[in-house]
Amino acid sequence: MARTRWIIALCAFASIAMAHDVSLSGKITDETGRPLWGVKVSLFGNMDGPATQEAVTDVHGEYRFDPVKAQLVKGHYYPMLMLQHPTHVSEDGNSHWNLDIPDELGTAVQKDFRFVQGGVVWGVLRHVMGKPIQMELRFALLMDNETDAAKVQATINTGGILRNSYSANTDRKGQFLVTGLPAGHYAIQAMPDGEVLGFVDVAAKQCIGELDLRRPRVKL
């Protein structure tokens, strides 16, 4: 009798747990409508900490999280979704989306995305005397078309005017290549100090090169 009650209680607990399970799935296509495979999809259960779940779109361009693992707040899950691909970007230029998923039995949310081929920028970074520099560069996508380097650097350092950023490392010859850039106005920064070396305007499917960047204050 005791065993039967224990089994009934366990089943009841399982039912309650399943009632809180919600799923998230979707499909990602390119500008022609064809499935885009190889998109890394990361789900963050809250605003802090690493991704709680990760997936990669298959040959059908589909991804799925079942169940969604996220923090429950007043009957809703508020996970953040991040998408990354080497050559394509979302049509609206975003890479992060904040979701609102109600905690209801059997909730199945579908979130589809359309990607376009991103821009490509390549070039070389040298000291003013011509010596190649090997370091990390950051392409900071700005919210406006500001071209004052000092102003942009100061504003970025305080958390302003930055929509997104993309990184590239120069090789021993100072050469760099960055792909999958959303359309927009970028400040090119030397990392880690964030010195602004120049600006570039990128359009979808556009290839820009050869940029010749010079850094006067580099330590040799």
Question: Would you write up a description of this structure?
Answer:
The chain is mainly beta and 220 residues long. It is elongated. The protein contains 2 helices and 19 strands. It starts with a helix and ends in a 5-residue tail after the last strand. Strand 2 and strand 3 (53-56) form a beta hairpin. The strands form 5 sheets. Strands 1, 4, 8, 11 and 12 form a 5-stranded mixed β-sheet that branches. The chain has a 4-stranded antiparallel β-sheet with strand order 3-2-7-9, with no helix packed on it. The chain has helices at residues 2-19, 149-157; strands at residues 23-29, 40-44, 53-56, 62-65, 72-73, 76-77, 80-84, 88-90, 96-98, 101-102, 108-110, 113-117, 119-127, 136-142, 162-169, 175-181, 184-190, 195-202, 207-215.
